[in-house]
Amino acid sequence: MTSEVRKIIGLHGGVLAILLLLQFVLPAYHHGNLARIMVLATYAIGYNLLFGYTGLLSLGHALFFAAGLYGMGLGMTQLGLSAGGALLLGVLAGATVGAVIGALALRTEGVAFMIVTLMFAQAGYLTVLYFGAYTRGDEGFVIQQADRMLWGFDLSDPSNRYFAAFVVFAVAFLAPLTVLRSRFGRVLIAIRENEERAMMLGYDVMRYKLMAVVLSATLSALSGAAYGLLFGYVGASFASVQYSIFPLLWVLLGGAGTALGPLVGTVFMFYLIDLSSGITTAYMLIAGVVLVCLTLFAPQGLMGEIRNRFWRWLP
Amino acid sequence: MDFGPYLMLATLEGAVTAAVLALTASGLALVFGVMRVVNVAHGEFFMLGAVLAWWVTSWLDGYAALGFALALLIVPVMVGVLAALADVTVLKRLSYDPERTIVATIGILYILQQVTLMTYGPDARPVTPPFNTRLALPWVEMADTGLSLYWPWGLSITSYKLAVIGAAAGVLAALWLLMTRSKLGLMMRATEQDRDMALAFGIPVERVYALVFGLGAGLAALAAVLIVPIQQAHYLMGGDPLLLSFIVVIIGGLGSLPGTVLAALLIGLSDGIISVFFSPTLAKIMATVLVALVLVFRPQGLFGASRA
Is there a domain that residue A27 lies in? Predict the structure, then answer.
């Protein structure tokens, strides 16, 4: 084991250990927040896989998040599935939507890819509103406490919920970390760095990109399904453009193409918005200012800057 | 009302939508055509136009026509200057990199929208139209004596709506003249064709960019001033015009002015007529998916290189 690998394991294992231990010391309010942040960071990790590592900027990830959320929620209310089955249905829904949208949208690139994903997500949002009879539109629906039992654990209980959020996050956190060190991950990075060269070297770029979209959509859907299950609410606002912009914001802030970036970005942005929404209703102003400043001054994000200046080994 | 007069009414209302949409979308098309920048904040410049129109007319309370004329003159300039400032302070510093400018304009979108929410507030506010005579319209029917005209109840349009259509047509014609007949237009077209070559020939490309970005935003603001007496000013009103403008610009062939106007007519008119048959949400879903598929399967003629 090289010293670099040891450092990587130490840092990321340490982060996980801290997250696991924090639940015993945090006051109730921040305890709940951190559970929420870990689920949302899973979404950011899914986004980062596509944006940070493969270099594809999607403006429509809310579609995948919502596929998980509604796959889970409607699975429960309409099909009468148990929590575990509904969660699985949500993740499968996300993977399927990811495969379809990926196969279509990947025919375009650059700006057109961004617009196409944005349009599909908008169509998805409108579809949720259109089937208001089942989805209850903007108002959304609540998942009853009785339905939020997974393997005998009541997920509405704060410490169970925290632990479940931690498990979801840990899976999402570790999976890309190992995937990206594999051959598959290296091809993705090669595509980001120079697509034509990857193609010349004989890699089926299209297939790799599609796999990246599906994997990214699956993680986003896992986050969506877990969010609905853990916090007991399914609503159309999670399918809106805003929820496509959020993961972009988190990843840009934390550092695209870094393993810790999504978590760091989500924590920062969550608390920035949480603090400012106490002062004004126009809390999205913060999001706008941060976006503009990041593109202008720190396109690498927080962890990217740290990697450039101090820890060159950061994955 | 019978179906015939009803369809005519839908067409007339559609023509108003189309006129305003043509103005808004041609602003977006201009910016994309010359600068290759996808301006996601375009809808917010539209919203600013409406909100500022309310603000300017509120100075001259009681003189609706005068206040409106003033708004029509200065609001597009105000929004245009603001947009040019955004171009110089943000977009220029990103060297107009396509992906980063999209992210930056998303940021600008939220900044404009939320600052409006903080200052103007969450209410929708009306602007009094400068004139608003109701004009009844005739329809033909078969009577015993042959064809005859009658005035069906409810088939009417206001003089203001007709003026909106006329004004939009006039502005578009002026824009067309500016682009094809003036020296400024020549500079814009040169920049559009080859930025570096234009620079080599002494065209101040950066100033042209700032001007084009301001002009594009100004067109959106002008469209909003025209529509605000019909539709109230609200801080979230930018979403729909943005989506529709995207659709129009993509269908019309990105950056092409005549194509954009034609597509705006098509979309605006069919919007009025389609909503007779379908729910507006379903119509929007179909339009969005269709346009996304156009981009996926026919990007060559509609997105990028070839331009009419």
Answer: yes
- Residue B233 phi, psi (nearest 5): -85, 130
Count of domains for chain B: 1
For residue A120, which residues of chain B lie inside 8 Å, CB to CB? Answer: 288-289, 292
Query: A176: Cβ–Cβ under 8 A, 6 or more apart, which residues?
Result: A45, A48, A49, A53, A185, A219, A259
Where does chain B have alpha helices with state H? 3-35, 42-59, 64-86, 98-119, 159-181, 183-193, 195-200, 205-227, 239-251, 257-277, 280-297, 299-302
pLDDT at position B303 is 41
Nearest-neighbour CA in chain B from A167: distance (Å): 32
Whether B205 shows a pLDDT value over 90: the answer reads no
Which of A31-45, A143-157, B70-84, B256-270 tops mean pLDDT?
B70-84
Q: Is pLDDT at A205 greater than 70 in this prediction? A: yes
Judged by CB atoms closer than 8 Å, whether chains meet at B111 and A114 is answered as: no
Contacts of residue A116 in chain B, CB cutoff 8 Å?
A: 292, 295-296
Optimal mutation site among B105, B106, B117, interface A, most CBs of chain A within 10 A: B106
Q: What is the predicted ipTM?
A: 0.76
Q: Is residue B220 part of a domain?
A: yes
Asked if residue B306 has pLDDT above 50, the reply is: no
**How far does the CA of residue B200 sit from the closest CA of chain A (Å)?**
27
Q: What is the pLDDT of residues A180-204, one digit of tens each?
A: 778 877 888 888 888 888 778 878 7
Q: Is the pLDDT of residue B301 over 60?
A: no
CB atoms within 10 A of CB B214: 24
Q: Which of B98, B104, B117 lies nearest to residue A291, judging by beta carbons?
A: B104
pLDDT (mean) for B109-137: 85
Residues of A with CB under 8 A from a CB of B: 57, 59, 104-105, 107-108, 110-112, 114-116, 119-120, 122-123, 126-127, 129-130, 245, 248, 252, 280-285, 287-296, 299
Inside any domain, residue B137:
no
CB A70 within 8 A of CB A134: no
Range of the structural domain that residue B260 is part of:
3-131+163-302
Q: Provide mean pLDDT across the span A277-297.
A: 80
Where in the sequence is the domain holding A44, given as residue range(s)? 3-239
Q: Could you report the per-residue pLDDT of A53-82, keeping only the tens digit for each?
A: 888 888 889 999 999 999 988 888 887 778
Chain-chain contact of B114 with A283 (C-beta, under 8 angstroms) = yes
Buried b (16+ CB within 10 A) or exposed e, A99-108: bebbebbbeb
Please say if the pLDDT value at position B279 is more than 80. no
pLDDT of residue B216: 94
Contact: A289, B107; criterion CB under 8 Å: yes
- Give me the pLDDT at residue B174, please: 92
Number of domains, chain A: 1
The C-alpha of A229 sits at a distance from chain B's nearest C-alpha, in angstroms, of 28
Report how far apart, in Å, the C-alpha atoms of B118 and of each of A284, B10, B121, B231 are: 11, 37, 6, 21
The residue written with tokens 């608390």 in the block is A271
Q: Do B117 and A115 touch (CB under 8 A)?
A: no
